[in-house]
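Check this:
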Amino acid sequence: MNIVRLSEFAIALFGLAFMSETLTMILATPGAISSPLVQVTGAGLGFYSVLSILSRRGEASRIISTYWLALFPVCFAIVSLVWTVNFGVTLRRAGALGLTTAFGLWLAMRFTPKQLFTLVTVLVAVIIIANFAVIQVNPARGIHQATDLLAPHHAGSWRGMLGHKNDFGRMMALMFCFLVLAFLFRVGGAGGRLACIPLFGLAGFMIVKSSSAQALLLFVLVPLGLVLMLSMSKVSATQRALLLVLVAPAVVISALSAQAVMAWGLGLVGRDPTLTGRTDIWEVTLLGLQDIAVAGGGYGAGWEVVAARITAIMGNAPGHAHNGYLDLAADIGFFGLGLVLSVMFWNFVMSFRNLMQGVLPEISTLALTVLLFSFIGNIAGSFLLLHNSIYWVLIVATYCQLVNAARENRYNARQVAFAEGPYEARQWAT
């Protein structure tokens, strides 16, 4: 492997670590969620990706014509500059979202599905070990303190390198899920599997120490969903169809009653069934969204409108809705939210279909993991269509690679049809 290729792997690994927010504590001042250095780093990764894409003839036009669905939500976020309530905020955040998306496109362009899967596996080990080391070496930074200016009531909960226990717990839960995939697909052979065992223990221990209810739910539900889908890939099409018929009603009912299900589950383990008051916030957020429900108040700025209305009703307002769907609806409306969910749903369909057919199983399960995690996690968290976010980067990268695989399969089918003869070619064409 030459130096150029090694540097690309290093940039990709650094970029994914940055997008996971693991480096924010190093790049930003204590207590801050961003800084000029964070912004410059994110912009640098994005501009590098853009230049790399533009350096390849025809790549930009191919991206627009091939991956247009994934670009729609980003374009709509940028277009929200027209009606935003805070032009400066939307300009910065929509620009950062565009550069983040470019990084995801670059990953899909420069790495094969297996290489991307391996990159994510290496990232898992780095993030788990680095966070545990920081907590042990510098507990004042890695654990919430009673003397903290922000959230002193979380004293004793682990926050690692991410600054807040919920963000830390959620990231550890995501790393645990990726670790499950690495174990199942035998990354690194027998030695790699053996190395997964202590990492499983570390990740699980840190999730518990984060005291994050949503992290515990994700830690349990997402791996269960993955095991179920992997099991479905091992049975016949008839058995799979029967299983889907049996499972689908339960999934629909659970989705429609997610709040009640989560409240019941949290009650069983002695946690607050209202998700620390989140359900009350969701109700008033819906009231605040009434006049901007279609297109939102501008990407990154919509909460200003909602918060003002909530304050008029309740006297004060939280910093966000503690729900990714509502937060994104505040920014780009339910129309923009629908665009994002369309990308995610189609990605889910492609990855599930490939997994059932045994095509690209690693990248398909990686996509399913991020999508399941996002669908469930955004009920009580907020990380849909975020700039500088590993969640959106991996959704974009896996979507593009799955689209590439589908196009290649169609091309191969066409070549086979034409090779078989004129009649078969005409049949394929129709």
Observations:
- DSSP finds 19 helices and no strands in the chain.
